[in-house]
Amino acid sequence: MQKAEKKAAKETAGSKWYDLPATQIDSEMKMQLRLLRLRGAYDPKRFYKGFDVTKFPKYFQVGTVMDSPLDFYSNRLTKAQRKQSMTEELLHDPKITQNRKKRYAKMQEASMKYSRVKKRKTELPRSKESRKRPKH
Question: pTM of the predicted model, to two decimals?
């Protein structure tokens, strides 16, 4: 009896956490957790407290945010803006897309700063024509 209780206790977060069960992590959940880890890269002016990047959490729950009827016009997503997953929402967010493009352009500019640009022969300055003997 005691072994069964100990095993059941290991599968939950404990009574102080209201016996939160351990969540099964599939490939889609892994992607969402990785996105949460990288959320500091979305908005560079926002700070997020970091968490352990070496392993995924064992005890967590995923929920759905319900819109308040009071915020019908001011603070809600339209049907076109709602997506199936957090990944899709981030890919279709115009602010994040603009920030990502700006950051990519900056990285490209920095990488081109130190690279040699290969010039074509036509772009090289022409040397002075050597004086040739006149033909008789």
Answer: 0.64
